[in-house]
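Q&A log
Question type: sequence-to-structure
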Amino acid sequence: MRAILHKLSYQRELLETLGALFVASIIAIPILTIFYIAFSADDNIWPHLASTVLPGYITTTFIVLMGISIITVFIGVGLAWIITVYEFPMRRVMEWLCLIPLAMPAYIVAYAYGDLLDYTGFVQSSMRLIFGWTSIKDYWFPSIYSTSGAIFVMSFVLYPYVYLTSRAAFLRQSMTLIEVSSTLGKSSIYSFFHIALPMARPAIIIGLILVIMESMNEFAAFEYYGVDTLSVGVYITWLGKNNLGGAAQIAIFMLLFIFLLMMIEKGLRKKRSFAQNNKSPITTNRIKLSKKRSSFVLIICAVPIFIGFLFPSIVLFDFVIERIFEIEVFEYASLLFNSLFLSICAAILTIILGVFLVNTYITSNNIIIRLSVSISRLGYALPGVVLALGVIVPLVTLDGYLKSIFGQYFNITIGLIFSGTMIAIIYAYVIRFLTISYGTIESGFVTLNPDISAASRVLGQSKYSTLLKIQLPIIKPALIMSALLVFVDSMKELPATLILRPFNFDTLATHVYTYASLSQIEEAALPALTIVLAGLLPIILINRELVRNKN
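Response status: OK
Response body:
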């Protein structure tokens, strides 16, 4: 009997190892493909890139990332400290409204501000009407289509990442340390910079790394504003100049930089806790502000919300109202169905793979499984443009191989099965968003009492029976959060969808991009607003989770 059980256990571990290796391979293939293309290109264009466009792409990307980093840290940390430490009217409302710009895809905000602030937009048209100006020569107005304009837009969309991690860090801190500092005659500003901020620094940097990674992934907003970052460079070199090798070589710079960020983030996660007495958390004794200071603080909190969410929403809503009777209902329904179908498929697949990887990782000490799971989490590091490059080449090769086999051995002519189909898009979504699913599901498994699993096994239940009947029902909230996050991110995903989509196939995101590229964002206002509304759902759940952890 013992020999049979041992054999079954061995077979199960073998199947789990093969499964983990399979998932790791489908994640690793696009990455390996990019390096293969870059180093096997027929023409060695490294010197040409180094002497022409590459320095400009790198310099522009560095300037953009530095500008976005400085502004997001300033806004995110400041708001997190205000919301956590001070008590003022509408604080509870502001604590989740500060998150709401996350619902806005950066490219939609960029299109909205482009329409609002350009020469023919509402702001400049109003100024000319009020002051009697007749042309651009009569006044000066900063151009939104610039590097500074891109930094402005991206910063007010991405600061919630820093706000989230900073606020979580401040919530874990003890008020005792602040009170001791006050007793010693130090001001609250001194306490913030010398006590609270150093303790929260690892969490702040983690949030900043997320901001940088999202900025590296952004393509449409930078292209629209004429800012040639590395992601735009990959797109132009590949599809504009028809140079696949050059695009892959530029992509390598992006990958190396992002992998470096991931290593830093991994190291910081291990160092982000401090030994402290948390019997008196900050939230139990917030500092009450006077009426005058409360009004000032409310304005500070409201400005990023207005810039990052409210103004763009008003622009989109105004366009929808203006063209309410011109909406092509069947076209909109088709776009919505395509987006929903792709996003739901991605959510289901990432949950299945995420549960398998987390459960296998937790219950096994197999070094191959652990290494495979680590590789499987690299997909989020791939910016959409780079991911599309890594996906399309192996799929085209596979289609060609299948076509040759069917034609040679079965005398059957087949079309595209993987490349140029929805399968390619779903594959890209799974690669990119599996990391999000894994992290969310893992947070659910961590809360499980190990005694539950042990008791189930003692009662004769198998590992997977315990998983299906006991563990998954308990972590249902984490599964829902995982599905929702992947669903919304898939709805917003643009670069990979734009490049991998079948002919004459559009989603809400690609439809918005197409019309915005033609300076007709008003024609795509309803699809854009739909994406924004979908993005509000996880914001509400994330805030509920923060409040629950706080209490």
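Response note: The chain has a mean pLDDT of 84.
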